[in-house]
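User: Hello, beginner here. Can you help me understand these amino acid letters and fold codes? It all follows right here:
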Amino acid sequence: MLSGFIELSSGQIFTIKWKGYDEIIKLTLNELAGLSPKATSKNLINRLKSHIPPQGFNERYEMGWGFIDSLEHKTICRRLEVCSLCDDEQQLFWAAVERGYSKLLQSCDEYMHLQPQYVKDLLDFKTGTGLTN
């Protein structure tokens, strides 16, 4: 079941299974960490981290479409609204996704357990060449 949602600036919503959603967010975070410190946004990094379960997460709090963050005592829905990010953060987000996609193509499982096709689908969706949901 599709349970991870990434809303683009165009208003379209990219959907993916929750594990794929989490992996795309992790990929983006990994790539943001590799960008120049001046280019990164702590707000963006914190926002992305809040969309995936924290380290040491207890699986009993997993619901697929979201999870219970026991540290924050709230339910987190797997929906990232890229459209609500400022322009600079949107550019950083997409630059990180593109860098991660390139690395996935080069080294695949050695880099991360995420199928490159999922990231390609997201990038195609962003440019309007992918399937619409």
User: Anything to note?
Assistant: The chain has one domain: 4-127.
